[in-house]
Every structure is written in structure tokens, then in C-alpha cells.
């Protein structure tokens, strides 16, 4: 019937029967002539049933009824018969997507089924050939079939199909990159083998040669993709690893700084982290480390490296850097994710304590505190939090109580609660804390701006 | 919080969104990212593909661009969604409106057959067949790159363009354009309920199981309820809800738990309010502050960091930080959208990981604003564009801070996809998934997964009630990944199939009720021992709260990532039910389930149900789908219908009962529906209306008369059995006017003037005497046969009399007699009434009226007031009845049929009281009847 209708139609009909031109319909035709008896009706019906079928498939899949979905999919395949659609996603792509998903979850599917399905899908549409290949490789990798995945990627890399190859340039680059990644993977395996041999005093030229060829293949592909703007953490790391192994530090440094500082790339904190780690590995001077971390601090003040940064700055002799350190740790503690970070609180407590004891630079604290005094008490130093912190993590409570006692005075709820509890429990540490805070209570007045000159000691 | 050491690779491009996507209902499937690599692959984890390649999904009828831009492009591209296409549809669907008059004028001149036109016809008719064929071919070739118009079509279109259309084409196009803009705007983004109006406040300490559900209800959804709910396998409400009446429809309820206290923000169009709910259960919520806005507010979120802080956005583009203590601080006032121009006034704001930094969203993206320096500090966080791999026409519909799952993660939902964003990596989504929902998700709820577990995100759509569960992992140690395939939960409307069968109008009502758009969503994780479950509450616009339970199940060994998955299995059950009357005509709620394995009946429901509010709950932990039978017979379009457990069925029935009860009470309260009825309660006591102790003859007869009248489809006439309170109007008695003129007029009126004239002249005196004699004889005979057995013969005589009368014209009677077959004939009643004893003497068909045997007068006992009282006849009527019966009994049991003239006029008054005796006993009253016809 389908084919018959097909022949009757003068031209292969678009799937979208409803994609009408501005219809010129003649006046007052009897209804059956509005759509003259071509295959039009049929196409509409076919389209409708296709849509219905697709809905059922979706429905089944969303309810994890893979079997049911699979059965519907076999019906849906019929829609390929008239795949002349100009739609964004035609039936062949849908079949690929749905089929892949079903095969991934269907309890009776095997890797063999999956592979043969994908091979069919590859022949079904050249427009997304490379994408299908890439997904296939991912699937193989996920199932531990690294070699097959590698083969697959190499095959896809050499695929040429006129314009289609250039149209799928992005996928091609990705395929090359992933192949490079697998090359890197085998390189690092061979490297480990060689290192093992080295230990035992062997030497194996063939392995070494293989390793070098892996390196070359990996390096070429990886280098290419990381020049395109994107998030390439894995590729960059591998590439830098390769370069470092062969001692090309300048290139590695170049790559990393490009990855971190090229404005076309997204502001990826990892790029800065990699650069920092690289510099640290190679014993670069503190100054350059600090400058890298300073930039990281500017874009992500809540990054976990801020603790390192703060420690580094605190140790510095320069006042400016110590000042920056205080800023960094205050800024980090602004974030909800750091609320219960003992390390950060102890950093802050230590630095604040230092400042108090030295009685210099109280204005630093004052300045930092000024922008926070309206919300830190509720955010960090509420009685509820004191209770909870004390129950869950005493040392956190201790550090926070110290900071609270200094910043808010000994009457603040947090400090009062913690010191009270601490005295009850006969904690020595708390007693010293209390003594310290009591001793430096005037500081609070100065910090909070309540002080006048007479209070100054 | 750590940042993942390596993210999945993806391209990053800047600029406007890439390709225009189309319908892609399967876009969410087949991506690799939800499968993580085995450890063997080391760092080579399965990467996400470049996001720009992802195909979005949307509903076929949805427009993939902003309405305006789509319209603009559609004019050139002629796409399905464009006005030209819409015009085409209009012509097809409403040809009369489009071409009516000219069509009528011209249709003779257009020939559509295949035959050749004959010569004469050719002068006035043109053959259109080939033109139509060509148009069809054009349609079929649509999309073909070598599309060209043939000259004939162009010729025709040039020729007709100006005059063929009923409404000038340009004008029509303008109208269609305007209408489309409006329709699409409302269809695409109905944003008033964004965020949802259902909130859950968890118990302060994890061990307690009583939380608080906050939801709107009432007639106009203007009542705010705080209902304590005990979470368990089956949630139960506890106590009656605290209730606040607001002066506007509640659009959104947002809540956050802080320092053991709950803060609830409530948004209606022009007012926003904040309530504080003390941590301990049972304590009453207290309203804290209310603000009024000049422009409708579009967003209200409660800070998860600082107590008493909220973010408010209005449709004028203003964003405020609202602190209960310090008041409002305006952060931004910009009627323009952020990244490109979009006409939507919708704005949204959420808190971020930094308590002083707010995210601020419009349809084009999100920015982060620092409240300490709002003018200077802002950061582009999410852009609808190439950065996130969006497609043309994509718009933000719901941003949400996922702080409970991960302090720096945000969810951004568009009509095509959901994105998980990390504040530390702006513009690049760390997770993207095309959700394939038919309606954009307007509600979302996140359930944090804890260490090593996946976070669950629930997405809910309003109109279609879709509910999708998405699980993802990562964010701090590892990169974000979807865990397992997404899962569809039951919708409220799915309940319908589990409810007992209803009468059609009730079914319709139920359908309406259950199909109401969803209005909110909340989820509560619950663990008891090893058994973990997730309770999902859904609120519908009709005010119903439904819930379903998802039970947790450890991942299958197959799953490579070893993630735990939550398997949904359950059905939605009505949880709370607002009074029906509260939202008459409002759409129903959502909540249905397709699989129910167990349903539990809520035992203490009765306590909650009261007149004002019905609350019912049903829990239905469902079994996982994975456990379904391997041998499913064959794919059926509908998922296997699950049968609700008996307990659930009971619960459903109970809910139904409450619903219908409210529904029935509705007209009484509102007076809207149904015709007005007058209660009889005041007129008669129940005793009056009740049947007398013993069924009297009267009743039997009346009933039989009724029955007979029904069978014969005749009219029910005045009862001649009982006292008739409405006496007939006194007929004019010709005999009372004995003068010649009157007699003549009477005769003329009756139509036999000639007869009268003859009589007057004495021409037929002899004939008359004969007739008179004959009649006397007959009457005498009839008197002689006054037994029951004679009734048959008497009826025969009646027949003969009739026939005689009919051919002999009116002999004595001035009025024409009844026609013989008249079904109204009253006497039948008696034949029927007596039928039992007559043994076939009565013809049930009643086609031949019979003269009934005279009935004995009602027995004297009727007259005694005692019997009357015992029959429940009111005192005032007793006398009447007694008088009446006295007349009957005093009169001759069988009054002789007197010619009308012989009756003294004075008797007229009495006679016209319809007495069964007099009427039944002879033809005399019948003679009068024709007058009544006038």
C-alpha cells in the first residue's frame, strides 16, 4: 500500500505533510476535494501513526520498560521507508538514539547486538556518521573494550565523504583527540613497562619504539584539539604529561598558560590549577605561584586552593601579601560551601590571632569586617550554629568561637555558648580561648568601629 | 568544596545560538554521558560531546523561536509555524469565512472534473483540474531544494490575489500575525506559576518525621495552609492546618529551612509576604512582613543562607533583596533583557553560594549580581547562546539554586533542555540533557543525595502535569554525570483510570478535576531502617495535593557506574483535597500513576476530613519497573494497567465521595447551577406528605389512573377521585337562558341552527318524542342492571349510544359527544380500579372506553374525623372533605341523567364540583365538557 501510494504521488512527499505552502484552495470545493485524493491523506495518517508510535516509545523508555520500547521501535523502523524529512532530527537519527539507549539498558542485549546495531546505523545516515562512531567508541570504552574502541576511532578518522567530512569537522577533531587519548593511554602503559624493566635492569627496544610512536601519534592529535576553544582538561593534562616526560617544559608551560589565559577559552578554574601545579612541580619561585593563585582567587574565590594560597601569603614577609592572605581567607569563608571547613576557620583564627597579638594592622580586620558585619553574625555565628557545631565538630566550634569572640566581642551568642559548654566540659583549650578573648576584648570595639581613641592601647 | 579535577571535554564557542532546531522528540537519548567509564579506562572517561551538537526536543506544535523572530523568518522561509502557513490552515479550515461570497459567485465557473469542457460551457467556465494538481505537487515537493513555482500557479495567484479573499489578504495576515504573537507568548511561557506553590519544610532534626507542607487552597487559591504531615511509608496529615487568608491568588510558595526555623515566602500578583514557621512541631506560623508591588511580581525566593532574606523580582525588570529587618534593597532596574532583546517581562532571581550574591535571570540568561555593589559587579553566568550549546528560540524558563545538593550548582531549565551550571565555571554547563518534556518545566525540586549517592532532580510541567525524575552525580570530586536514565513519574490525571467507573457527567467532572494543570511540586526523602523512599507531592490548580512514593533500590549489577538508583513505583494518591467549591471551574490537579503495586490506606484520615476541607491521603509505594516480567506479551500502546489495591480503591472512593459531596453542595452555596427549587418542607409536615398507614382506595385509584394515563400517553386529567381544590369555572348553562334568542344563539353556536329552526317550526316533533321515549327506556334498563356484571353490557350500550349519537347528530345535547375512542375517558379508571374483581372485565389497553359500574359511595367511616385524622388529612381540610362526601352520599347513588334543561340552575354550583359519582354515573357531565374546551 505504501509503495502504491508512493507511486501515485508525483514527487516524493515531504514527511511533514503539514508543512504547507500558503495554500491556494479554491472556493467552495466539496470537502473531499480540499485535499485531492492523492497520497496526501495517507501521508498524514502515516505521519500521525509515526508520531503516536514515537510517543509510546518515549513513554516506555521513560518508565524503563525497555522491552516494550524495543517492540515499538521495531514498528517505528517502518518510518524509515519514507524518510524524506527536512526535519531537524529525522527518523533515522531517532532510531539511532532510541536504539542505543534501549540496547544500553535492555536486559538481554549483548555487546554483539549493540555493535551490529551501530554498524547499521552508521550506514543509515552519512550526516552524522562521525557522531555515531564517536558514541560507539564511548560505549566500547565504557565496556572496557579499549582496543575495539581504538580501531573504531581510527576507522572513523579516515572516513571521507566529500562535503560531509568537512561539515562534521568538530566531530572529526574530537575523534582524533580521543584517539590521541587512547594513544596516550597505551603510551603510559608502555612507559610503566619500561620503568619496570629499568628497575630490573632489562632493556626492550621494541617496547621503547612502540612507546615513542604512541607518543607521536598522541601528541599530534592532542595538540590540535587543545588549540580550539573549549574545555579540554583531560587532553591538556595528558599532553602536558607527554611533554614533561620528554622534557619539553617550555612547550608544556606554553600550552598551560595558553589554556589558562587565552580569553577565548572559558574561565575554567582547572586551567589555572594545572598551571599552578605545573609551576609547583618545577619549583618555580613563590612569586609566580602567587600570581597564578591570585588570578584564580579573582575568578573563583571559593576554590579549595585558597587555603594553600592563604598559607603561602601568611608566610610572606611582605605586609601587602599578608593583607591579601586575610582577604583571601575572609572571601573564602563567605561561601556557603566553606561554612564548616575547619581548615579555613583555623587559618582565619590563626591570622586574626596573630594580628591581635602583634597589635598591628587591626585596620585590616576592621576593613574586612566592615562589609561583613551585617550578615556574618547570622550566617556564621548564630546560636543555632554554635549548638550544632559544638555537637558535630568541637574543633570547628573552637576556631569559630575564637573568631567570633574577637570580631563580635565576648557577648556574642556563638562565643558565649561555646565557652559556656566548654567550661562545663572542663575543656582546657576553651579556657585559654576565653582568657584570650577576654584579654583582647577592647579590640572588638575598635574593629566594630565603636571605639574612640581613648580605648586604644 | 572541591572542584572536579577534570571536566568532560566540550567545545566552547561564543555568540548567538547555533542552528535552529526543530522537532526532536528523542534528543535526550543515546548520549553517552550518563554511562561512566570503567576504571580501566583511566582518565579517558567518556566525554560529553560538544554540546552544540545536541539536538533539542520540543513539542511539535511549539514554536522554536521567539514568536516575533519566528514570524519574521517564517514569512521568508515559509515554515510551518509562520503566518503564511497559518493563513493556509485558516483557508483550509474555514473556507466559508475565507472565500464565502466569491466562492458562491464563481463556483459555477470553475470546473474540477477530468473531462474536457464542452464548447458552450467553455465560454463561462474554466477547468481548474490541472491547477489543483500542480498545487498539490508543490506541496509534495516542499522542502525540496529545487523548489520553484510554475507559471500557472503564479499566474493564478496574481490574478486572484486582490479579489478572491473575503477579508483582504494583508489585513488578514496582520490579524493572524498579531494573534499568533499573543497566542505563542502565552502558550510558550505561561510564567505566572513558575516556581510552584507547594513547599515542604522538613522537620528540624532528621529523626522526627513530621514536616510541614505549605500550599494554597480556597475558593480563589487565596488561603494559605500550613499542614503538618507525618512522613512514613504512607504520609498522614496531623491536626488541622494553620490557615491564613490572603487577598490575592497565591502564585508561588517558596520555603527555606534555616537555623531550625522555616521561612516561607508567598507571592501573589501584587503582594509578597513572608512567614516564619518555628522549628518545633505544632507551633503556629507567624506572618512577618508583607510588601506590595505596583507591577506584578514574577519571582520570590527565600535565602537558604540568612534568615529573613528574600529575593523579589517584578515584571518591570527590578530585582530586590528583601530583608525582613532592613527592608528592600534594589539591585537592578532594567526593563531590557540582558543578553539580547526579548519582550518577555519575566524575571527571576535566586541566591547563590555567596549570601550577598544573587543570580538574576530573564529569558535570555542569568547574571550574578553582588548586593554589596550591585551597579558594578556582575558576572555572566548563563547565556542562551553558543556558549551553552543552545538552539535558536531557546529561552530560560526556570532557574533554580541547587544549594542543597551542591553549594555552587544551579539548575537552568529551558523549554528544550536542563542545564546544571557551576558558579565556578560560568557559561559552560557542566551537565546538559534534553528533557523532551512536552511542556516547559515550571517547577523543580532537588533532593540532595549525600556522599556517594546521586542527587535527584524532579522537574514538573504545569499544563501537561509531566513529572520527570533525573539523577546526577558529581560536582565536587568528579565531573557531573547523569546517573541512569530519566524516569517519568505518575501524573495526577493518570489516577482516573484507577477510579471506579462513574456516571458520564461525574466522569467528566473528575476528568476536569484531575486534569487541572499542576501548580507545585515537593519531594521528601524518607528512610526507615534499610528502606528508603522518596515521597513526591504534587499540587494541582484545583487545590488537590497528591503524592506518590518512590522506593529506593540499589543499582543493578549491570549498571557500570554502581550508582544507586531510585526506582519509582507508585501511584499518585490524593493527599489533601481542597473543597471543591473553592475553585469552581478551575482545572484539576495532577497525579496519576501507571504502576501501582501496593497502596496503603491511610487510617487516620477521618480525623482530618471536615466540612471545610477534605483531606485524604493515600500512599502507594510502587514496585520498580526493573522487576517487571520478562515476558511481556506484546507491546501495547498503553502500559499495563496496574490495579490499585483494595485499600487504595477504598481511599479513592472516599476521595470521590468527598469530591461529589462538595460538588453537590456547590449550587446551594453559590446558587449558580441548576434551576431554583422551592422547598416544600415548610408547607407540609412530613406526616402530611408521607403515605397514610394503609393504602386507601383513593391512592390505589389515583395511582392506577396515573399509570394508565402514562401507558396511553394521554394527559393526566383532574382527579375525580379525591377532593379537587380547584373547582371548574362554572360553565354557562344554556338552560338558564330560556328566551328564544338565547336558544337560537346557542344552537347556532353549536352548529345546528337548522335543526333548531325545524324544531321551532315543529317539524320534527314526532321524531323527538320517539327519541325521548327511547332514552327513557334505556335508562330504565340501565338502572335495572346495576350489578357489576352489567358493566360489560352497559359499556356495549354505551357504544351503541355513541354510534347512535354520532350518526343521529346531536339529538338532545347541545354539545357534541365524545368520540368513541377517546382515551381520556375518565370512567376507565374505575374499570381498572375494579379490575381485580372484575376478572377481565376491564381492558387494560383502554382502547374501548367502558362505562364503569357505579361505585358505591365511600363508606361512612370516611366521615368520622377520627379516620380523617388517622389518614393524615389536615384539620382544615377535614371539614371540606366531609362536606364533599356528604353531598355525594346524600345525593342519589346514581343520579338520573337529566337533560340539562331539566336541571335547576341553582344546582349548577354543586354539580360542578367534580364528583366522581356524578361524573362517573352517566353521560350527563360529559355533555358539558365540550364547553370546557373553550
From TrEMBL, chain A:
User: Per the record, a Pfam family?
Assistant: TAF1_subA
Q: Which SUPFAM superfamilies match?
A: TPR-like
Q: Write the gene name.
A: TAF1A
Stretches that traverse the bilayer:
none
InterPro entries, sorted: SL1/TIF-IB_Component (IPR052669), TAF1A (IPR039495), TPR-like_helical_dom_sf (IPR011990)
Instruction: Identify the domain of life.
Output: Eukaryota
Q: What is this protein called?
A: TATA box-binding protein-associated factor RNA polymerase I subunit A isoform X2
Automatic annotation (TrEMBL), chain B:
Domain TAF1C helical bundle per the UniProt entry, residue ranges: 508-794
Give the top-rank taxon of the lineage listed in the UniProt record for this protein.
Eukaryota
Compositionally skewed regions (Basic residues) per UniProt: 773-786, 925-934
Where in the sequence does UniProt note compositional bias of the Pro residues kind? 850-860, 892-903
Q: Which Pfam families match?
A: TAF1C_beta-prop, TAF1C_C, TAF1C_HB
According to the entry, every stretch annotated as the TAF1C beta-propeller domain falls at 264-403
The biased composition feature labelled Polar residues covers 788-803
**What InterPro entries does UniProt report for this protein, alphabetically?**
TAF1C, TAF1C_beta-prop, TAF1C_C, TAF1C_HB
Q: Which residues form a coiled coil?
A: none
Bias-annotated ranges (Low complexity)? 904-924
Q: Where is the TAF1C C-terminal domain?
A: 864-934
The name under which this protein is listed is TATA box-binding protein-associated factor RNA polymerase I subunit C isoform X3
Q: From which organism does this entry originate?
A: Apteryx mantelli (North Island brown kiwi)
Amino acid at each position: 500500500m505504501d509503495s502504491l501510494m508512493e507511486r501515485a504521488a508525483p514527487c516524493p512527499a515531504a514527511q511533514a505533510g503539514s508543512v504547507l505552502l500558503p495554500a491556494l484552495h479554491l472556493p467552495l470545493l466539496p470537502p473531499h476535494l480540499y485535499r485531492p485524493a492523492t497520497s496526501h491523506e495517507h501521508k498524514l495518517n502515516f505521519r500521525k501513526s509515526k508520531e503516536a508510535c514515537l510517543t509510546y516509545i518515549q513513554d516506555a523508555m521513560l518508565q524503563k520498560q525497555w522491552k516494550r520500547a524495543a517492540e515499538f521501535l521495531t514498528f517505528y523502523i517502518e518510518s524509515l521507508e519514507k524518510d524524506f524529512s527536512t526535519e531537524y532530527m529525522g527518523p533515522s537519527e531517532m532510531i539511532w538514539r532510541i536504539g542505543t539507549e534501549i540496547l544500553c539498558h535492555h536486559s538481554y542485549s549483548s555487546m554483539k547486538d549493540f555493535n551490529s546495531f551501530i554498524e547499521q546505523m552508521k550506514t543509515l545516515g552519512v550526516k552524522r556518521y562521525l557522531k555515531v562512531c564517536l558514541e560507539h567508541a564511548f560505549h566500547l570504552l565504557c565496556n572496557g573494550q579499549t582496543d575495539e574502541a581504538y580501531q573504531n576511532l581510527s576507522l572513523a578518522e579516515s572516513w571521507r565523504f566529500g562535503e560531509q567530512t568537512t561539515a562534521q569537522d568538530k566531530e572529526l577533531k574530537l575523534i582524533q583527540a580521543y584517539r590521541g587519548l587512547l594513544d596516550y593511554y597505551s603510551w603510559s602503559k608502555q612507559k610503566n613497562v619500561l620503568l619496570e624493566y629499568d628497575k630490573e635492569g632489562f632493556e626492550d627496544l621494541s617496547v621503547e619504539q612502540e612507546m615513542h610512536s604512541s607518543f607521536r601519534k598522541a601528541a599530534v592529535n592532542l595538540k590540535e584539539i587543545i588549540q580550539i576553544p573549549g574545555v579540554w582538561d583531560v587532553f591538556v593534562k595528558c599532553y602536558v604529561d607527554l611533554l614533561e616526560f620528554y622534557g619539553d617544559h617550555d612547550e608544556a608551560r606554553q600550552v598551560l598558560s595558553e589554556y589558562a589565559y587565552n580569553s577565548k577559552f572559558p574561565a575554567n578554574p582547572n586551567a589555572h590549577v594545572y598551571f599552578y601545579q605545573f609551576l609547583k612541580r618545577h619549583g618555580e619561585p613563590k612569586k609566580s605561584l602567587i600570581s597564578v593563585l591570585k588570578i584564580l582567587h579573582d575568578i573563583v574565590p571559593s576554590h579549595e586552593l585558597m587555603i594553600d594560597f592563604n598559607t603561602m601569603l601568611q608566610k610572606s614577609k611582605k605586609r601587602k601579601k599578608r593583607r591579601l592572605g586575610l582577604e583571601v581567607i575572609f572571601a573564602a569563608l563567605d561561601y556557603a560551601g566553606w561554612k564548616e571547613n575547619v581548615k579555613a576557620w583555623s587559618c582565619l583564627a590563626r591570622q586574626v590571632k596573630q594580628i591581635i597579638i602583634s597589635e598591628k594592622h587591626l585596620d585590616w580586620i576592621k576593613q574586612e569586617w566592615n562589609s561583613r558585619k551585617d550578615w556574618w553574625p547570622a550566617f556564621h555565628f548564630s546560636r543555632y550554629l554554635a549548638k550544632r557545631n559544638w555537637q558535630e565538630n568541637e574543633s570547628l566550634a573552637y576556631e569559630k568561637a575564637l573568631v567570633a569572640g574577637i570580631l563580635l566581642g565576648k557577648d556574642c551568642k556563638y562565643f558565649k555558648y561555646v565557652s559556656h559548654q566548654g567550661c562545663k566540659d572542663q575543656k582546657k583549650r576553651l579556657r585559654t580561648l576565653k582568657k584570650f578573648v577576654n584579654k583582647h576584648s577592647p579590640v572588638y570595639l575598635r574593629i566594630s568601629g565603636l571605639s574612640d581613641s581613648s580605648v586604644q592601647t | 568544596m572541591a572542584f572536579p579535577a577534570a571536566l568532560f571535554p566540550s567545545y566552547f564557542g561564543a555568540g548567538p545560538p547555533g542552528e535552529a532546531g526543530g522537532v526532536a522528540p528523542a534528543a535526550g537519548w543515546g548520549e553517552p554521558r550518563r554511562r561512566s567509564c570503567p576504571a580501566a579506562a583511566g582518565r579517558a572517561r567518556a566525554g560529553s560531546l560538544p554540546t552544540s551538537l545536541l539536538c533539542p526536543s520540543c513539542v511539535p506544535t511549539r514554536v522554536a523561536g521567539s514568536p516575533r523572530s519566528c514570524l519574521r523568518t517564517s514569512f521568508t522561509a515559509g515554515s510551518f509555524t509562520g503566518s503564511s502557513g497559518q493563513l493556509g490552515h485558516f483557508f483550509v479550515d474555514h473556507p466559508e469565512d475565507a472565500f464565502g461570497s466569491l466562492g458562491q459567485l464563481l463556483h459555477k465557473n470553475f470546473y474540477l472534473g477530468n473531462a474536457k469542457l464542452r464548447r458552450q460551457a467553455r465560454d463561462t467556465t474554466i477547468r481548474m483540474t490541472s491547477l489543483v494538481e500542480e498545487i498539490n505537487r508543490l506541496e509534495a515537493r516542499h522542502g525540496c531544494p529545487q523548489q520553484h513555482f510554475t507559471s500557472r500557479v503564479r499566474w493564478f495567484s496574481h490574478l486572484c490575489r486582490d479579489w478572491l479573499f473575503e477579508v483582504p489578504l494583508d489585513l488578514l495576515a496582520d490579524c493572524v500575525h498579531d494573534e499568533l504573537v499573543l497566542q505563542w507568548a502565552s502558550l510558550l511561557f505561561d510564567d505566572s506559576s513558575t516556581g510552584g506553590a507547594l513547599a515542604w519544610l522538613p522537620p528540624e532534626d532528621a529523626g522526627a518525621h513530621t514536616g510541614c507542607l505549605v500550599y494554597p487552597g480556597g475558593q480563589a487559591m487565596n488561603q494559605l495552609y500550613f499542614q503538618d504531615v507525618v512522613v512514613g511509608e504512607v504520609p498522614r496529615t496531623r491536626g488541622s492546618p494553620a490557615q491564613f487568608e490572603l487577598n490575592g491568588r497565591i502564585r508561588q510558595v517558596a520555603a527555606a529551612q534555616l537555623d531550625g526555623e522555616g521561612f516561607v515566602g508567598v507571592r501573589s500578583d501584587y503582594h509578597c509576604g513572608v512567614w516564619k514557621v518555628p522549628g518545633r512541631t505544632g507551633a503556629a506560623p507567624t506572618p512577618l512582613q508583607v510588601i506590595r508591588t505596583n507591577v506584578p511580581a514574577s519571582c520570590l525566593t527565600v535565602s537558604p543562607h540568612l534568615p529573613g532574606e528574600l529575593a523579589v523580582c517584578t515584571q518591570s525588570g527590578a530585582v530586590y533583596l528583601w530583608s525582613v529587618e532592613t527592608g528592600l534593597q534594589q539591585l537592578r532596574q532594567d526593563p531590557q533583557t540582558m543578553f539580547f532583546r526579548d519582550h518577555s517581562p519575566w524575571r527571576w532571581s535566586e541566591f547563590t553560594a555567596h549570601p550577598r550574591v544573587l543570580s538574576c535571570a530573564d529569558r535570555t540568561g542569568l547574571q550574578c549580581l553582588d548586593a554589596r555593589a550591585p551597579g558594578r559587579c556582575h558576572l555572566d553566568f548563563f547565556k542562551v547562546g553558543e556558549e551553552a550549546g543552545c538552539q535558536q528560540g531557546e529561552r530560560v524558563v526556570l532557574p533554580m539554586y541547587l544549594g542543597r545538593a551542591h553549594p555552587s550548582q544551579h539548575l537552568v531549565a529551558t523549554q528544550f533542555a536542563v542545564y546544571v551550571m557551576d558558579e565556578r565555571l560560568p557559561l559552560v554547563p557542566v551537565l546538559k540533557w534534553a528533557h523532551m518534556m512536552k511542556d516547559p518545566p515550571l517547577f523543580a525540586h532537588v533532593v540532595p543525595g549525600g556522599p556517594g549517592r546521586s542527587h535527584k532532580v524532579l522537574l514538573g510541567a504545569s499544563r501537561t502535569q509531566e513529572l520527570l525524575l533525573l539523577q546526577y552525580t558529581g560536582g565536587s570530586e568528579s565531573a557531573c554525570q547523569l546517573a541512569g536514565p530519566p524516569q517519568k513519574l505518575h501524573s495526577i490525571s493518570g489516577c482516573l483510570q484507577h477510579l471506579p467507573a462513574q456516571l458520564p457527567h461525574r466522569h467528566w467532572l473528575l476528568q476536569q478535576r484531575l486534569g487541572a494543570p499542576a501548580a507545585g511540586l515537593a519531594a521528601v526523602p524518607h528512610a526507615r531502617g534499610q528502606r528508603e523512599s522518596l515521597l513526591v507531592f504534587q499540587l494541582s490548580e484545583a487545590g488537590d495535593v497528591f503524592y506518590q512514593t518512590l522506593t529506593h533500590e540499589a543499582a543493578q549489577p549491570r549498571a557500570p557506574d554502581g550508582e544507586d538508583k531510585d526506582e519509582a513505583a507508585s501511584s499518585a494518591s490524593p493527599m489533601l483535597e481542597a473543597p471543591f467549591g473553592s475553585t469552581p471551574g478551575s482545572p484539576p490537579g495532577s497525579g496519576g500513576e501507571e504502576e501501582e503495586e501496593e497502596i496503603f490506606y491511610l487510617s487516620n484520615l477521618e480525623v482530618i476530613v471536615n466540612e471545610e476541607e477534605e483531606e485524604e491521603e493515600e500512599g502507594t509505594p510502587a514496585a520498580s519497573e526493573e522487576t517487571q516480567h520478562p515476558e511481556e506479551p506484546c507491546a501495547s500502546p498503553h502500559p499495563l494497567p496496574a490495579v490499585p489495591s483494595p485499600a487504595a480503591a477504598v481511599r479513592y472512593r472516599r476521595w470521590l465521595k468527598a469530591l461529589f459531596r462538595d460538588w453537590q453542595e456547590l449550587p446551594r452555596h453559590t446558587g449558580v447551577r441548576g434551576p431554583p427549587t422551592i422547598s416544600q418542607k415548610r408547607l407540609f409536615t412530613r406526616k402530611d406528605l408521607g403515605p397514610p398507614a394503609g393504602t386507601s382506595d383513593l391512592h390505589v385509584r389515583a395511582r392506577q389512573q396515573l399509570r394508565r394515563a402514562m401507558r396511553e400517553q394521554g394527559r393526566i386529567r383532574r382527579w375525580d377521585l379525591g377532593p379537587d381544590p380547584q373547582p371548574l369555572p362554572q360553565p354557562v348553562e344554556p338552560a338558564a337562558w330560556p328566551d328564544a334568542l338565547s336558544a337560537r344563539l346557542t344552537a347556532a353556536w353549536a352548529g345546528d341552527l337548522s335543526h333548531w329552526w325545524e324544531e321551532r317550526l315543529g317539524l320534527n316533533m314526532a321524531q323527538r318524542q320517539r327519541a325521548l321515549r327511547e332514552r327513557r327506556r334505556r335508562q330504565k334498563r340501565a338502572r335495572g342492571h346495576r350489578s357489576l356484571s352489567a358493566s360489560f353490557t352497559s359499556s356495549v350500550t354505551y357504544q351503541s349510544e355513541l354510534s347512535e349519537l354520532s350518526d343521529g347528530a346531536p339529538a338532545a345535547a347541545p354539545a357534541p359527544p365524545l368520540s368513541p375512542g377517546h382515551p381520556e375517558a375518565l370512567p376507565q379508571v374505575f374499570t381498572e380500579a375494579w379490575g381485580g374483581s372484575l376478572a377481565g372485565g376491564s381492558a387494560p389497553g383502554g382502547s374501548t372506553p367502558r362505562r364503569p359500574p357505579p361505585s358505591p359511595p365511600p363508606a361512612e367511616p370516611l366521615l368520622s374525623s377520627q379516620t380523617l385524622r388517622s389518614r393524615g388529612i389536615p384539620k382544615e381540610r377535614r371539614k371540606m372533605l366531609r362536606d364533599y362526601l356528604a353531598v355525594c352520599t346524600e345525593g342519589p347513588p346514581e343520579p338520573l341523567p337529566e337533560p340539562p334543561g331539566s336541571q335547576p340552575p341553582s344546582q349548577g354550583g354543586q354539580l360542578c364540583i367534580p364528583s366522581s359519582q356524578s361524573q362517573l354515573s352517566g353521560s350527563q357531565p360529559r355533555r358539558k365538557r365540550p364547553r370546557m374546551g373553550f
